[in-house]
Amino acid sequence: MTPREVHFDAIVVDGHADTISRALDDGEDLGTETGKGQLDLPRMFRGGLDAQFMACYVEPKYVARKESAKRAFRMLDSVKRWAAKYPDRMAIARSAADVRRAAAAGKVCAILCIEGGHAIEDDLGLLRSFHELGVRYMTLTWNNANSWADSCRESRHGGLTDFGREVVREMNRIGMLVDLSHVAEKTFYDALAVADTPAICSHSCARVLCDHVRNLTDDQLRALARNGGVVGVNFYSGFVSQAFYDSKKAGDEAGEAERGAAMERFKDDPAGMDAALKAIWTKYDGREAAMAPPSLDGLVDHIEHIAKVAGIAHVGLGSDFDGISSLPREVGTCEHLPRLTERLFERGFAEPDVRKILGENFLRVMEASIDARLAGA
Ligand SMILES: [Zn+2]
User: Fold this and answer.
1) 118 C-alpha vs ligand 1 centroid, how far in Å?
2) Do 150 and 287 sit in the same domain of this protein?
3) Ligand 1 centroid to 346 CA: how many Å?
4) Given pLDDT bands bounded at 50, 70 and 90, which one contains residue 362?
């Protein structure tokens, strides 16, 4: 088989996309050629992308409004309506077995997941309800800490609280993957200390290659490997390339300050806050899109490093499509994923290892942490 043939023969699983955040409020029909963003159904087929973890990202602003769960439910509903509209081409997968079945039937699938543990509003009943609806991972935090876990950007508790440990145990018990992207290092280790099934970092890179707080140290990579988990490598230029990150950092800090001021100023004016945050996003987004992204080889360097430090069984893809505004041009949208496979072969990865990176590692973790629980193991 040629590399392209392997790509389309393999089951390709991507750990994270924010397409629903992009499309929900604009009412896009994701079953059509949207011409927008980085992912829609036609481009998933052209890119050989079989299964996409579709993030229901709950922005921190919903915490203050006490509408975090409501926002998550709305986003989950929109993924379900998308799939329901295209039953011949798309399915919602609730297990690794579902992913394999859909792929065999020539369909792509979305796997529901929640980004931001504040979505459960400190209620294990809500967590279980999300699971009933098909949610198969939750990032314990986004960049904001919540009342039971610290994030990589905000420390309130010194890691995970006792209730946070209960959340992790309950996720393990019911069969929802614990996603440790975005969390503080202490939260990461606290969660792994109580986890009894493999965890994931759905969209993170290697800290040693790009010293960003969202990336994982070699110690973290080894700890996740001991747990049996997997890291989905993020395609974002600012996580892939130190040079890109350094040149962007000053602008980021200005953006953070402006965001903080806007959150404070418009705290009683949701519409005003939306407009202000959108303007700030556009301002820094635009600036970023004008900067030169790293090459595809820069991205493959992270895959190679994680494979070396954690092992080939512990690395996968976590593009962050539609959540990022700069990525290597060669893989600018999901339709370009075959190019990544070609590059993996050029860089010397053997076919069985390429298949693991493309999807089998994620599927193995799902089988251990989700399918086994659904079967009552
Ligand atoms: Zn994220």
Assistant:
1) 14
2) no
3) 29
4) very high
